[in-house]
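for the writeup, i need someone to sanity check this before i put it in the appendix. the sequnce is what the collaborator sent (i think, or maybe the updated version? ugh). structure was predicted straight from it, no edits. if anything looks off just tell me and ill rerun, i have time this weekend
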Amino acid sequence: MKKIYFGLIAAISLALLTFSATAIEKYEALMPKKDKYIRATGFFDYPPFGAVQYPERKKHGEFYSIFKVPLQNFAKENSLFLSYATEEGTYEESIQKVRRGEVDLVLGMYHESKLYKGIEYIYPAAVSNPVTAMMMPDRVSEIATLKDFEKLKGAISSEEHFSDYVEEQLTRFNIQKEPNAYVLFEKLFTGEVDYVLGSHYYLLAETAKLGITDQVGIAKQTFWNMPLFIGVSKLSVWRKFLIYKLNAFMQNKTTISSFQNELAAYIKKIQDDNKGVVPPPYIRVQKEDDLTASQQAEKENKTSEEAKGGEGEEAQEQPAKDEKASAE
């Protein structure tokens, strides 16, 4: 049903583009010839979709996002002066600025989520943010469907941003929230939880930073898909212009490919930058605990044999000393 809905919306958007082309040309002709200054915002703490780094003693930060390069191309094509609203504050506060018309664009928002009420969506979605699970490698096969979560205990990170629909679905399961990825995976490796749940790209990035990519298994299934859209403020001075131009921009297959390329490049950079990172100490504890009964028995047996072998060598050496003593 959702696929049909999104397909219908996309078809309507395409029809409106064709229909409104002449109207936009008239609109632009009537607008005063002045520079178009556009402000955008997005996630402050959710790479690769958005993150802000604040230099020391600076109120404004540097915005990083997979949306940035495609939007810079869009701005160049349309002679826009694009800047980013990166004042210190929460993500929710930045969305309020979009609602008030203080910021024109939001880069990355979920469909049917209350936070974005009153902001216009640009179709199609720029990227999809799938939700999956990670477990210890020998247990990944335990989760194949959503029903499998019901008999297990899981955890998610408070750093995650989920759609309202996914948040509602999570209430069906025994899932606890942890403050960050470090603690999240500590719970997994120490056996306090059976799995960790999160967006695919967040989990890939965080396991790379922790140096544990090869220590965990990732489920083959995507349990939910969360499309991320670009949004336009209804109170933006350039609302009509942006809606028309962005809809046309997003209909271009090259544009969608550019978002995918940025996403792949970000994950690769994170993985490359963190090669050789020393894993957290709880990884070493887990490796010791992971010895099976047979491995432990084998280890003890080997130790016992080595001890016996040492005794034999000592026994063989003794007669030689005795013979030397006799000769003397």
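The first strand starts at residue 36 and ends at 42. The radius of gyration is 29 Å.
thx in advance!!
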